[in-house]
């Protein structure tokens, strides 16, 4: 008579004597461990960002008296309206000019040899290794009356053009300072695009320009949107460059906030301006997120349509 065998479900359940069976780690314990690792960063964020931000918002509604008077003055006071409009216009000009300058540069970085690409990346990173004050003082020397910029402009018949102390000079310097923040996001996206997609489009009868416009440009749109949103947000709150190269008559929001807090002690009005910048920043980030997603989807749709047509 054959010996009885253990049931299949219990055959593999035997464990060595004296050793408890292993139990899977609960998911709640893993989440608690992850939260514990994030706790220092969350505490620092709350202490150094959330609490000061809440204090600014409270002061904007309570100083000098409770109510929304500080916010109403943003849209009723003529001087504040001009400052807000000037700041938004300068930020928009800097962003558009940065896109026009950074896109060809980032595109050439994807085509260059490794050695040339390393040199181009170094050129982009050099401003990060230079002091902000040093760069702005260099622009002051270049833009001063009788300086290099005026000498170059006079060679092409533009005599007496003054840039130092003007909004145009501030915008030119801001473009140079913020250009790396535009190039790097573009390049990070462009280097991931398969250039064989352009060849595939051309093999289907599209011209090089049409293939670039319908395939490569939509796929690179997330990099454009990321760089543009980053530069636009930074330009909204830029202080050093407008303070050194601009003038009180052409002040931007950051300069007005500094004057209200240091000289006028108008913490409520300064807080309202700060909250306005924060709201515009959140709106621009939300719009850029939607544009980046729609651009990537459009590029993928063009690629799929081309593949289906073949």
From TrEMBL:
Residues 8-21 have a biased composition (Low complexity). GO terms for biological process: transmembrane transport. One of its GO terms (cellular component) is plasma membrane. It comes from the Bacteria. InterPro entries: MetI-like, MetI-like_sf. Pfam families: BPD_transp_1 (PF00528). Keywords: Cell membrane, Membrane, Transmembrane, Transmembrane helix, Transport. It is a multi-pass membrane protein. Its main location: membrane. Residues 1-22 are annotated as: Disordered. The chain crosses the membrane at residues 33-54, 83-106, 118-143, 163-187, 215-240, 267-287. It is found in: Cell membrane. Gene3D superfamilies: MetI-like. Belongs to the binding-protein-dependent transport system permease family. CysTW subfamily. This is Putative spermidine/putrescine transport system permease protein. The lineage of its organism: Bacteria, Bacillati, Actinomycetota, Actinomycetes, Streptosporangiales.
């Amino acid at each position: 008579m054959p010996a009885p065998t253990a049931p299949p479900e219990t055959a593999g359940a035997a464990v060595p004597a004296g050793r408890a069976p292993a139990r899977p780690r609960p998911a709640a314990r893993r989440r608690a461990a992850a939260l514990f690792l994030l706790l220092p960063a969350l505490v620092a964020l709350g202490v150094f960002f959330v609490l000061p931000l809440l204090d600014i918002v409270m002061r904007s509604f309570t100083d000098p008296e409770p109510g929304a008077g500080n916010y109403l003055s943003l849209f009723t006071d003529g001087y504040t309206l001009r400052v807000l409009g000037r700041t938004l216009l300068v930020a928009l000009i800097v962003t558009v000019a940065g896109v026009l300058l950074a896109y060809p540069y980032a595109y050439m970085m994807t085509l260059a040899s490794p050695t040339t690409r390393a040199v181009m990346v170094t050129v982009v990173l050099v401003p990060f290794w230079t002091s902000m004050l040093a760069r702005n003082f260099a622009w002051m020397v270049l833009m001063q009356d009788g300086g290099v910029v005026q000498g170059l402009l006079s060679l092409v018949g533009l005599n007496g053009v003054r840039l130092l102390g003007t909004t145009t000079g501030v915008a030119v310097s801001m473009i140079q300072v913020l250009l790396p923040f535009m190039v790097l996001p573009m390049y990070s996206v462009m280097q991931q695009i398969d250039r064989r997609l352009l060849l595939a489009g051309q093999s289907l009868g599209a011209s090089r320009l049409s293939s670039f416009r319908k395939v490569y440009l939509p796929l690179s749109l997330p990099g454009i949107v990321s760089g543009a949103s980053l530069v636009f947000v930074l330009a909204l709150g830029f202080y050093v460059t407008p303070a050194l190269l601009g003038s009180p008559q052409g002040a931007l929001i950051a300069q007005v906030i500094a004057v209200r807090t240091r000289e006028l002690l108008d913490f409520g009005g300064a807080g309202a301006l700060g909250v306005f910048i924060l709201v515009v920043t959140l709106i621009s980030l939300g719009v850029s997120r939607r544009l980046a997603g729609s651009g990537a989807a459009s590029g993928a749709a063009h690629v799929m349509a081309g593949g289906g047509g073949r």
